[in-house]
UniProtKB/TrEMBL annotation:
Residue ranges of the TM segments: 97-117
Keywords: Membrane, Transmembrane, Transmembrane helix
Regions of compositional bias (Low complexity) in chain numbering: 129-142, 162-172
Record's compositionally biased regions (Pro residues): 41-54
Origin superkingdom: Bacteria
Organism the protein comes from: Pseudosporangium ferrugineum
Name of protein: Serine/threonine protein kinase
Length: 372
């Protein structure tokens, strides 16, 4: 058979009429038909008359039938039946089939390229599409309103860009992330105002109200107790302390229903504000001569066990009462903006529970009051 190069040249002939049919191309590749090269027409002299029309070449008709019949009834079947193929002949025939398939694929590729080039060469009308997936309503920004003409196309309401200004649209801003409130740190240092270990009578004195069976005494620790609901203040220093300050003290709740109390901004005539430390919570409020008010409550994550020492630090600053328990921030309660902002500090007992049995008692030790 002719080389594959000759078959490709014939298949890619410039004149479509000179290209072989698929059947002829298959016969050429299989060696059943010689390669038919298109004849090159000789140059025609200018004065010569027009040549007679070339005779029309008729292609041999092929009888159609089933797929197996077409493969068997190839043009080469008109000759004598071929001898059985050897193994080598079978390999040659396989290579020819692969070559034929390659040529067909080349022809199909060229046809596809031609169609694509032709399609790109034709002018197309612009198409109005919806919003881009990278912006607009799909990206969280509000979609522009339709134009005044009543059409459905989106008309952005923007002014022409000034010379030198950027023409890029501003990217949609992401929603601001929620900021976590920083946890206040327990203050340290400061100027000492009152310090007392409370292991013996000193700045705090022993006192008693027999009618209420309430008393406060010091013996190793300062103990406040009573047999009924209510409050009892131990007699202590009468020095006025101004904001900002801190009161740090160790306390232990001796019986159920008992709350250790720290009064601040206190005066005998007007009363003052108070921090009550109970088993499950702390309460910040005001004890006035004719009224008692609760500003807020802070629940403990871990309950205070009875008869267990707990270090409590009350910090009054920036218009709030901050509570630290064992060096850790427990919470804070806002104080009234109209004051008071100065007064005495008192220690004592507060009982408000109605489902516990008397007596009630708390103890204190190592009080440290500092100006912050």
């Amino acid at each position: 058979p002719q080389p594959l190069r000759d078959v490709v040249e014939v298949a890619l002939a410039k004149d479509p009429a000179d290209r072989p049919t698929a059947r002829e191309l298959l016969d050429m590749l299989l060696g059943h038909q010689p390669v038919m090269r298109p004849a090159v027409a000789p140059p025609v002299p200018a004065p010569a008359p027009a040549p007679a029309p070339a005779p029309v070449r008729e292609r041999p008709t092929v009888t159609t039938g089933s797929r197996d019949e077409l493969l068997v009834a190839a043009p080469g079947s008109r000759h004598a039946a071929p001898e059985p193929l050897s193994v080598r002949d079978g390999r040659v025939r396989g290579h020819k089939l692969l070559a034929a398939l390659a040529v067909l694929l080349v022809l199909a590729g060229l046809t596809t390229v031609g169609l694509v080039v032709r399609a790109n060469a034709e002018p197309r009308e612009s198409v109005l599409t919806g919003p881009s997936p990278d912006g607009g309503a799909a990206a969280g920004a509000p979609a522009p309103a339709p134009g005044k003409g009543g059409t459905g196309s989106a008309q952005p309401d923007r002014k022409p860009a000034k010379p030198g200004s950027s023409s890029k649209a501003a990217a949609p801003k992401a929603p601001p992330a929620e900021r976590e409130t920083p946890v206040p740190l327990e203050p340290s240092g400061g100027e000492p105002i009152i310090q007392d270990p409370l292991d013996q009578p000193g700045q705090w004195l022993d006192s008693e109200i027999r009618e209420q069976q309430a008393r406060c005494f010091t013996s190793g620790v300062m103990r406040a107790e009573r047999v009924d609901r209510g409050t009892y203040q131990c007699v202590g220093p009468d020095e006025d302390i101004e904001d900002d300050f801190g009161v740090e003290v160790t306390t232990a709740l001796q019986t159920a229903g008992s709350c250790a109390a720290v009064w601040f901004h206190w005066s005998e005539a007007d009363g003052g504000q108070v921090l009550r430390v109970c088993q499950d919570e702390v309460v910040v409020g005001a004890d006035m001569p004719a009224d008692r008010t609760v500003y807020g409550r802070v629940a403990f994550k871990e309950r205070i066990a009875l008869k267990k020492s707990t270090r409590v630090h009350l910090v009054v600053r920036d218009g709030a009462a901050q509570i630290f328990r064992g060096g850790r921030f427990a919470g804070e309660v806002e104080l009234p903006s109209d004051g008071p902002d100065t007064g005495q500090v008192r220690l004592g007992l507060s009982v408000e529970a109605v489902d516990t049995d008397p007596p009630y008692a708390v103890t204190f030790a190592n009080v440290d009051i500092r100006s912050l």
